[in-house]
Amino acid sequence: MNLWLILAVNSIALGGLLFLLASGFSLIFGLMRIPNLMHGSFFMLGAYLGVSFLRLGAGFWPAAILAGLALAGTGAVIERLLLRRLTGKPQAQVLLTLGMALIVADLCLMLWGGDPIEVQTPAGLTGVVPVFSVVFPTYRLVVVVIAVAIAVALWLMLERTRLGAMIRAGVDDPQMARVIGIRVSRLFSIVFSLGAGLAGLGGFIGGPILSVYPGLDQDMLPLALIIVILGGTGSLAGALVGSFVIGFLYNFGQALFPDLAYVILFVPLLAVLVIRPQGLLGKLAP
Amino acid sequence: MTPALEVRDLHKVFGGLTVTNGVSLSVAAGERRLLIGPNGAGKTTLFNLITGDLRPTGGRILLFGTDITALAGRRRAHLGLARTYQIITLFPNETLRHNVMLALLGILPRRWNPLRRFDRDPALLAAAETVLDQVGLAHLALRQVRETAYGEQRRVEIALALAQRPRVLLLDEPFAGLSAQERRDVAALIGAIPPAMTVVMIEHDMDAALDLADRITLLDFGLVVVEGTRAEVVADARTRAVYLGG
Questions:
Q1: Does any CB of chain A come closer than 8 Å to the CB of residue B53?
Q2: Which of A71, A107, A163, B98 has an alpha carbon within 20 to 30 A of A174's alpha carbon?
Q3: What ranges do the domains of chain A cover?
Q4: Strands (E), chain A
Q5: pTM for the complete prediction?
Q6: Which of the two residues, A93 and A132, has the higher pLDDT score?
Q7: B77 CB near a chain A CB, below 8 Å?
């Protein structure tokens, strides 16, 4: 397989992983109006916890689900016990998430050490499958399928259910949502927990592709930020499109212009901010 | 009889600025009360205190005899309090139909069930249709709020408030920014509000508002200056002093 195809396949898989990271980040940003600077930490912590579940004897997929659930619980606790005390003080909330990111990074270093940990691709998914005329590594294809399935489930939840309607209302105007009787603080807990859980799941199932290492959090957070600004805050479709765009830019940039990898990521971001500040699929505040 | 809405010695201080300085008023069930006063008299602040958008520095607020002073704003909505805003406040990225359905959902007991459908709930759809029809906007049900005209948005706002079938409805300058025809439309809407619903309205447009009011309260510098029937308030020397000076 030639270099271009390999890069494209890797980009699609990375896009899927990035969607798991960025979808929650985007919903949190849209609803709570804060960039959650510990979102990369959720991704890394999910990966490390999953590794521990594996070491305790769990299978790959049970470990992935447990990592997601553990992070959803962690997110709910952080929102309920820390962030909620700072309601209405976005600067303090952002600083809190930054501080928590540093704490989680140190804790992970202490608990799992400084060496990168390889996560074995689950048995049965190590081969390749032909997709049209391209040979696609089976595991990477599974990651993409999971990401797309979660995208569809999130879309259905947001567009069709009562809970989703209330989240959309909160993203649109939290003050008005309160006036009509919606408990917006509960929406914050649900969305923060959901976002943390998806990031944790993404972190672990990304393990066989990215491996797990100190600094994984700081590698992922800027990508989540770029995706959400590119796609538009609070927009699920924007997060999906942004994830694949950044997946391609990241891989092709690293391969073709390794010295300029970040330039290639940030130049489109700057262009979007100047030309279409609400993001590709975001909506302007009225 | 227990008043629908009662405010007792309400105070609100922002830093060193006293905006509400001991307001007391009592609105009977089913009454239409008009709040008037110059800019900065503290009318909107009073509404914000009643709905829980702001916390008072002192005093009490009672809804049908229940002390709601410490209750969260959303809980007050569940007890039958609804409002509109001076600056139109809606969900701009949702359709008119979804806006009304959200207002209905906000007070439903089973709104947190994550598996319940929203967009095709027959009861919500039917109720939204009725309310939009009531405000003459049924034909725009599927249009996004951001794509509708200002006067239509005013009516949507009133539709949202009416959809919740509140016991007390607060209207903050419902005629602001409307054309003469739109004012007549909104006046007709307010006139058609069921008599059992208590309405408190802030309005500068006296021509449109006076006909709708049973009693009038004049506020100035965060205090109730005059209260009475239309004739009493208009005849009172203090009213002229507030509006004309001296």
A1: yes
A2: A71
A3: 3-214
A4: 128-131, 134-137
A5: 0.86
A6: A93
A7: yes
